[in-house]
Amino acid sequence: MVVVVVLLVAMTAGNGVVCTLVAAFLHFFFLSSFCWVLTEAWQSYMAVTGHLRNRLIRKRFLCLGWGLPALVVAISVGFTKAKGYSTMN
């Protein structure tokens, strides 16, 4: 519900920069939510198999949960020159 409200506000603002920023942030947060679910599944698997290492894994999970989506969004914005994140108007 919040996503729809934010998207509608960005679309009615009439500013292309705001629309592009909102689209990039939505892309980042959606990707990060999927990556965090992946890390939770990975941690559950490691707990079941008995290979749980807390200190080293925590750093990798942070890199996977926040770093991978940031990298994907940065590459997407860079290749499309931010035109792929705005409306056609």
UniProtKB/TrEMBL annotation:
Q: Which Pfam families match?
A: 7tm_2 (PF00002)
Note the topology in the membrane.
Multi-pass membrane protein
Q: Where is the signal peptide?
A: none
| Domain G-protein coupled receptors family 2 profile residue range list | 1-89
Coiled coil stretches, renumbered: none
Q: Which PROSITE patterns match?
A: G_PROTEIN_RECEP_F2_4
Key words, A-Z = Membrane, Receptor, Transmembrane, Transmembrane helix
* The protein's name in its UniProt record: Adhesion G protein-coupled receptor B1
Q: Where in the cell is it found?
A: Membrane
What gene is it encoded by?
ADGRB1_2
* Highest taxon above the source species: Eukaryota
| Membrane spanning stretches | 60-79
Source organism (scientific name): Saguinus oedipus (Cotton-top tamarin)
**Chief site of localization:** membrane
Query: InterPro entries in the record, alphabetically?
Result: GPCR_2-like_7TM, GPCR_2_brain_angio_inhib, GPCR_2_secretin-like
